[in-house]
Amino acid sequence: MINKLTIIGLGLMGGSLAKALKAQGAVVEVVGTGRRTESLDRGLQLGVIDSYTLDMAEAVAGADVVVIATPTLIAEKVMAELAPLMTPNMVVTDVASVKGNIQRAAEQIFGQVPPNFVLGHPIAGSEQSGVEASAVDLFLDHRVILTPLANTSDSALSLIKAMWEACGAEVVCMDVAEHDAVLAATSHLPHVLAYTLVDALAQNGAAADIFKFAAGGFRDFTRIASSDPTMWHDIALANRDAILQGIDAFSSHLDLVRKAIADGDGDTIFASFDRAKHARDEHFLGQYLTREKKPPSS
Amino acid sequence: MINKLTIIGLGLMGGSLAKALKAQGAVVEVVGTGRRTESLDRGLQLGVIDSYTLDMAEAVAGADVVVIATPTLIAEKVMAELAPLMTPNMVVTDVASVKGNIQRAAEQIFGQVPPNFVLGHPIAGSEQSGVEASAVDLFLDHRVILTPLANTSDSALSLIKAMWEACGAEVVCMDVAEHDAVLAATSHLPHVLAYTLVDALAQNGAAADIFKFAAGGFRDFTRIASSDPTMWHDIALANRDAILQGIDAFSSHLDLVRKAIADGDGDTIFASFDRAKHARDEHFLGQYLTREKKPPSS
C-alpha cells in the first residue's frame, strides 16, 4: 500500500498507473505535478489524481513513491529539480523508454544513482497520448522492466516491483545496456522505420493516391507512425547508439534483399521471407512449425 | 448473374470470391481447377466450389468467367495453358498483385492482351492463406483495381466490374504502371521492410529476448511478415522495378534520419516524425489537423 504517490508529468503512463493503483486500492492519495496546468486540470476532472500543485517541493513532500512520467529528455531535467527534494524514505522511479541516458544523467546530478532511485520501463503504450487516453488496464498482462544497479536498495526495488504487480504487470529485471539494446530492436527501430516510410511516401507527388489505395497491411504497419513525435524524438536522441546499430543492421539486410530482387535471385528472396515468417509465427503464434523446404513457385 | 465461374488455383482469393458470389446468388455454378487436389478437395468439402477437375479444358469449357487466382508467377504459366482454350464468349480475369508482368506475359502469349481478358487486383487479403481461410466478406468495402487496356472489351469490363461489386467491393480503374507504382509503395515495399526487419532480428544472437519483450507496436508492425513467402517472393520478382525504386527512396530517407540521429539533430528528427504522424492521421483518421509547430522538448 502506497500512502502518497506523486506523479511528475501527468500523461498516458502516469494517468494509467494512478487509475490502476486506485482501482486496486493500492494507493491512498495521488498528487500530480508538472509545468503546466492543462493536463493536471484534466486529470483532476477525470478523477485520475486527487490534487495537484505546480510546486514540485510541495508535490513530493512526504511522498512514499515519486514517479517521473515525463518525456525522456525532460526526465533528465526533472531529476535535477528533484535532487534536493529527495529524502531517504522516498522511493523514486521513472517510466522512460531508454534507461542509459537516465542513468548517465542521474550520475551527473547525484554522483551515483541513489539507492532509492529505481530505473524502470513499462512495456506498454499506445499511439495515443495524454492523460485522457489513460486506461486502468494499460499495464495488465504487460511486462515492466526494472534495471536496478549494484547499489539499488532491496526495499526500494521491492516497493516498485509490488507497485507494478498491483497493476497486473509482470516485472522483469535486466541490465541497463541490455534493456536499451532490446528496446532499440523491438520498439525504437520499428518506430524510426515506420515514421521514415510514411514521411517518404507523403513527400511523393502521388501521395494522395498512395494513401487512398493503402489496405489493412499498410495501416497496421504504419500505426506506430501516429505516435507522439515529441516522445519519439526524445527516444531517438536518448538511445542514439543502440538505434544507430539497429538501423545499420537493418540497412545491411535491406541491401542484401535489394540486390536479390535486382538480380532476380528468387532463392535468396524466398529464404529471407521464409525465415522471417517462421521466426514471427514461432515467437508470436507459438507455432513451432516444421519449416517447409519447398522451392518457390518459379 | 454468372452461369458458370471457373477458378484456377483455389486459395484465399478465389475461395472468398466464390463464397461472396454464392451468398449473393450471383453465380449458378463454381468449378475449381488446379494442379493438385488438396485445396480443391477442401474447397469441395467446405462448399466453396460445386465441383473440380484437374483437366483445365474441361474446367473452363462453357465458362462465362474464368478467374486466374494462382500466385503471380504461376499465373503467367496458366495463361499459356489457357490460351488455346479461350473462346470469345468467355471473360478471363486475374487477381494478381502486380499487373505489368501479367500484361507482358499475355502479350508474349497472345501477341496482345485479348479484349476479353480484364486485368484485375482486389486490394484485400490476409496474412493467412489457403481456401480454408476464405471469407464471404473479404472484399466487402474493399477496393478492386481493374487495369483495362485500350482494346479491352466494354462488355468484358462491365461483367468483371459487376462481379466484384456483387461482392461488395468498390471498383476503380487505373493504368497498369500507376497500379504497380502505387502498390509497390503501399504494399510491396512494406512487406519487404517487415520481412527484412524480422529476418535481421531473428539472426541476432539475442533473438529470443528480443521477441520476448516485443510489445503490441512491434506485433502490428511485423504482422505482414507472417504472410505467405511464396506469394511475396513472386511479387518481389514480378514488380521488381517499382519495388527497387521504393526501396531506394526509403533508403535515402532512412540515411537522412540516421544522420540526424547520429548528429543529435533534434530539429530534423522531430520534423520528419511530425510530418509522418500528420500525414498518416490525415489520411487514415480523417484528422486534417493544424500541424503544431511546437519545438521538441529538448
TrEMBL record, chains A, B:
Keyword Oxidoreductase: yes
PANTHER family reported for this sequence: PREPHENATE DEHYDROGENASE (PTHR21363), PREPHENATE DEHYDROGENASE [NADP(+)] (PTHR21363:SF0)
Cited PROSITE patterns: PDH_ADH
Span of domain Prephenate/arogenate dehydrogenase: 3-291
Domain of life: Bacteria
Record's protein name: Prephenate dehydrogenase/arogenate dehydrogenase family protein
InterPro entries given in the database record: 6-PGluconate_DH-like_C_sf (IPR008927), NAD(P)-bd_dom_sf (IPR036291), PDH_C (IPR046825), PDH_N (IPR046826), Preph/Arog_dehydrog (IPR050812), Prephen_DH (IPR003099)
One Pfam family this sequence matches: PDH_C
Alphabetic keyword roster: Oxidoreductase
